Amino acid sequence: MDERSQYKTALGLAKRALDYIARYQTPPTPHAYELFYTVCAGLNPDLNKALADIIAEKRKLSAADAERLHKGFISTELPSETMETVGAQMNGQMSELLSLLGSAAANTSNYQASLENAEQKLSGGAASQNVEALVGTLLTATKTMAQANTEIAENLETSRAQVEQLEDCLKVAREESARDALTGLIIRRHFDRLLDEAILNGANSGKPTSLLVADIDHFKEFNDKYGHIAGDSALRYVASCIKSNIKNKDTAARYGGEEFVVILPDTSLEHAFGVAERIRHLINSRELVKKATNENMGRISVSIGVAELVAGDTAESFLNRADMCMYAAKNSGRNQVMDTTEPEPAANSAA
Q1: Nearest-angstrom CA–CA distance, 85 and 90
Q2: Rounded percentage of the chain residues whose pLDDT exceeds 70
Q3: Are 301 and 283 in contact (CB under 8 A)?
């Protein structure tokens, strides 16, 4: 689709979203606009169904219902400062767009009135000396209409560019809000949703999907000995080692504390084991140095569990099997990788 077609499609969706806002008597907030734009674009069938259920029951969508739908199907809890800035700008753009549409409607109405007036005079047998004046009036009305439409088109183009900038800002903010500030990896809440999607995709495609659960060995002792700043550096180091050994289609997340998880789509257990081994080896391959004092803090290691998706797996069962393998690696001496082909000892609190 070329740029012009994309523009027409986006503008059509924007107009439909505004129509829905008016039809369902929803306060025109940025969230409401984004909600209805998503509905019109058909990007989330579950959202469309939830909206249809509310409309069927209430015949309108209140501000509270709109916020609930937005939070449940769209929101990624953007930082409040970002939302306030973008929200204010989006409100301004929506008001301007509504004003432009109102101007277009008024211009069209005036032009239609001019045509009807001319038609009445002609059908009433206007004198020949008045025909020239009548034609002049119509020409003036036509030029006025054309000029107004040109101005509206130019203003709409400017508005479109500004809305695109706001959408880019929202996209960046959402991506940032989905990542851990310390490591740059996906946060747990976002990971949980992506894991559900990976399980569904794996089940539908029939292709293997694997999962890694990694935990830094003796991290509490390391943190207590060298301090939280050094501990944060160790977490960033582990995250960088993980990122450097996975592909763009893979998803790495900081699952909590010193625990990390990685989704590997289209990856068998055997190949996932190889990925885990490369990560483990890289992490343990260098000695860490405390920048402030140049103190050698030695090497850190991780224990990694590997599991492959099986029929009937849920997110909980999939994670649990990988987690059990990670604990098996801990109990077997740490700094190693174990998968589900190994016996599964009971999990304990080994760190």
Answers
A1: 9
A2: 66
A3: yes
CB neighbourhood size of 75 (10 A): 16
Q: For the CA atoms of the chain, what is the radius of gyration?
A: 30
Task: Extract the tokens encoding 78.
Answer: 């953007």
Q: What does the buried/exposed string (b/e) look like for 119-131 if buried means 16 or more CB atoms within 10 Å of the residue's CB?
A: eebeeeeeeeeee
Confidence of residue 278 (pLDDT cuts 50, 70, 90): very high
Residue 270 has which token pair?
Answer: 């055997």
Provide DSSP, 178-197: TB-TTT-SBPHHHHHHHHHH
**48 contacts 26 by C-beta, under 8 angstroms:** no
Q: What are phi and psi of 153, to 5 degrees?
A: -60, -40
pLDDT higher than 80, residue 289: yes
Catalytic (active-site) positions? 258
Count, residues in the chain: 351
> What is the set of domains in the chain, with CATH numbers?
3-177 (no CATH), 188-339 (3.30.70.270)
**Torsion angle in degrees (nearest 10) through CA of 311, 317, 321, 326:** 140
Sign of CA dihedral 137, 142, 147, 149: positive
